[in-house]
Amino acid sequence: MGFRMKYKPHILLPISIFAIVILFSLYLDRKQFVSDILVCEKPLGEKPPPFALNELFTRTAIRIEQSLAESTSVDDLIASSVISSTGSGDMSSLEILTALSRNNPQNQLAAVYALSACTKAADYPACNDEIINRAIALDGDNGAIWSLVSSLRYSQEDSYGAVLALEAAVEASDYDDYFQRGLGIVLNALPSVDDDLNYRLYQRAMNHGVSLIIPGYASLRPIHAMCSANVVENRALAAACLSFGRRMEEQASSLIASALGLSLQISTYGGLGNVAEYQRLEERARKGQQDRVNSDFRPAFDLLEHDAQLTKYWFDQLIFAGERAAIDTVVVEAKRLSSRWNYNPCPSVLFGNLLFVIKDFSRWALFGART
Questions:
Q1: Is the pTM of this model over 0.70?
Q2: What is the tens place of the pLDDT at every residue in 61-84?
Q3: Could you give the CA distance from residue 135 to residue 169 in angstroms, rounded to a whole number?
Q4: Fewest C-beta atoms under 10 Å: which of 123, 158, 254, 260?
């Protein structure tokens, strides 16, 4: 009786709710694991990035792009064309790369990336036999180079030359899609991944430059068109399309390039009207995508956002071994780190959740009072 007189319910209820909220926030802030990999809890509600960080990111990105564009290093200038959509000044990425190749005739990367850029602008005057011959002279044993040549020839309405080049892409002794080397020159041009700002710079560079980092990406659009439209009348082309698609699927350094190789086979069977093979490969592509979604790499990849050292390890493995091999090693590393009792790179969501719940509760209470 005395207790009820001293502590009124309208006072005790908010205190009780506040205590429950704290306990609930502590519950959310505990360590959780998926497949023995630490999972960082996300704060309740939407939390947009601070405006100050956005401004700093923009200024830093512009400064890096300007520095690279003014560099005398060929690798830096290639990286500049990847990171920036327009390169430096009023020159396009294509103009920069063709000029680099012409001025550095023994530089393999410059020749390859110039040829790659030409596949997207076949009518550009500089995209002539000089560009093609230079790339072949420097890396003619590479099937990825010949796929670029095939793409450019087809875009220039030289169907016969395109088929010959695609056959050469199948018969070449090597296949290197330049994913690892291209990624290396871009990452070497950026600051170390040691904070959120630099991590976002890496993500921007990767997202923006993926078609240039892997020249084979640029080559596949016209090759897809060629293999979809003309294979019934040209059995030699059909055989080359299927063989090159299998080679790319099996030997490409990145998952996307491998998937595009499978897609090329699917397009070819579609063009041939082979429904059984078309459906079989489509099912394989669907299952492969589903397996990746359900794999241990998903929690490991989510952890990269919170651990700069793990992110650096991931990029190092990409450059050293390619994406498919890097996935296995980064999962092992994420599990090794997660097994340590003192490992917790996750930001605390306690106070963020607490403030969100109080704010949400206040809105509900205010709405209730008004109605």
A1: yes
A2: 777 778 888 888 999 888 887 766
A3: 13
A4: 123
